[in-house]
Amino acid sequence: MATVSLTLDEIFDLAKKTLLANGCDEETSSILSDLLMKAERDGSLSHGLFRLPAYVSGLKSGKINGKGKPEVKKISESVIKVLGNNCLAPIVLNKGLPELIKAAKENGVAVLAINNSHHMAAMWPETEILAEAGLVAFACTSYKPAVAPAGAIKPLFGTNPISFAWPRPGKTPVVFDMATASMAMGEVQVAKREGHKVPIGTGLTKDGKKTTDPAEIADGGVLLPFGGYKGSSIAMMVELLAGALVGDNFSFETATKDNNDGGPPSGGEFILAMSPEKISDSEWTKHADEFFNKMKSFEGVRLPGERRHKNRLDKGPRNINKELVNKIKSLS
Ligand code: NDP
After folding, report:
1. Which of 177, 190, 234, 271 to mutate to test the pocket of ligand 1 (most atoms within 8 A of CB)?
2. CB 33, CB 12: distance < 8 Å
């Protein structure tokens, strides 16, 4: 793969120039470019510059408002709602997270319910911000159907990511962020292109048969949740939390309303923040650290988030796919 070496500032500038040229205002361009740069910096590559052309598609079709302003509504002491007003999720989060942090610190627990926002990003940025503020965090969102519930052969769930972060004062938080699908469809397509098999349980053929052939999944087949019926229940939980609970779409409703321009559809996000300072005792940090140390003492174990956090320490340039860079440049 031919690559171009770009510094982190150059990645930010490339994204910002492209967004400004495609209808975003200064605030939206800056916030989204910062997120894309951080995804490249951390090696969260499926959610870095790779996603920029899709964001541009949504901006060009008018589905996404690049100049919109989300509205924060305090429903109660511990329930904050943000009306996304067709803005991109990072802009919505930028408005809602400070309110959530304040409410969770005051009340011990608080919820951020997001509506009508366009999410295509990774989930760790929001849970990590909350953990860095000293809170335990959980976030999830749905998308469009791609994953069959256990027992079915047709998609109903999105790839429905969940993220959890645990604060470690003075240290980097422990964070996991994962789709509830067994594998991203993008990775199935890569396996098809490169002629690799995929593990049984990744997906089904169009006739509902188990297969290790990625082509049979990618061409009319369907993905499965991770972990069989257990993952299926977690994907169902995401549909309920990010749909019915926050007052937004289920994945199948999102699909019927979306204009299919390739950009992220409008939907909801659910975020929960808990204050260990209020809920636990003064030993909570030490207690959790003892647990993490024990876990890491097992041979072969690493903590989730460690790969990204190690990548983050490298402040040097990143090698970006040349074809992608040229495509992005052509968008402005
Ligand atoms: P991965 O399977 O690559 O990783 C999932 C998590 O597991 C990460 O936190 C990762 O930490 C951790 N992990 C990986 N290997 C190990 C290991 N050996 N030991 C301990 N922890 C490990 O992620 P996915 O492919 O499932 O998801 C990729 C991204 O896609 C996520 O950011 C997700 O939010 C995003 N996504 C977004 C969607 C949306 O609609 N917005 C839809 C679906 C996915 P580390 O990062 O340190 O490797």
Report:
1. 177
2. yes
